[in-house]
Design brief:
- This protein is mainly alpha-helical.
- It is built from 13 helices and no strands.
- The radius of gyration is 19 Å and the shape is globular.
Amino acid sequence: MFLDSFKVMSLAVIQVFLLGAIGYFLVKKNIIGSQGISTLTQLVIKVTLPIFIFCQLVRNFNFSLYSDWWVFPLISVGITLIGFVVGALFTKFIQDIQYKRQLLSLVTFQNAGYLPLALTAALLPKDKTASMFIYIFLFLLGFNLTVWSIGVSMLAFSKTRRFEWESLFSPPVIATIFSLLFIFFGLNKFLSEIILKPLEMVGDCTLPLAILIVGGNLAEIQLIDIHKKEIFLMILAKLVILPILGLLLVMRFRLPQLLRLLILIQLAMPPATSLSIIIRHYKKEDLLISQGIFFGHLASLITVPLFLSLYHTFAI
């Protein structure tokens, strides 16, 4: 049973990995340069992902069917707190304050959007994919709030730094809020297929482009003077301890199946790639972030199917 599940989960993860590998080698071979990856990133963040969110919510969401929609941002905050506590325990093994902060951020914040969306598309049947997408979009409301507030404070702390409130309202967040209001006021009933169909075609480009970008970003990481101790602690905390806690949670509380899967997936994901954006934006020295993101994603090729298989074997 476990081996069969591990095979299925591994194949799903490999599908996502192969797509990321295309982006990785396009950058390594200089077919797409750094500017090209930046342009694609802006395209996804500002255009295709907001459109994808809008189309999915307008098609599949209504407040009567998802009356507990507000729970998902709270679950996101709860998962962030779990990651923070585990990360804080592991920073006890490190002396330097900057290394502590970067290790803590790597453990606290996961790749909450692109990888879970792509994994959902590869793993679940179509009749469950739409619901899981909605769960992830609602989850991201809480995640973006925490990563662009607490995450920024961890990595860019300065007594003179002014907090940038606009960072909380990224295009995907605005798209989610706008879509919920659009549906709340019943405006989706007047949306013609003539408009929705081409929007869906644009939105459907999001997942392959997003994973390609993740692979391209990994290719740009410079692996010089690898901090083995810190990376080991990060992998142990982020990709072993947190998924174990996720398994215990979903086995202890008999939540709906998709909700249990969402919690486990989020707790099993590698570090958030957005952490490298924060480091660059605030011009902080990248001591661990890039290395943590690279080796975390690499290790997740084993840990993610492992814990998903354990979930499928023992928690369903």
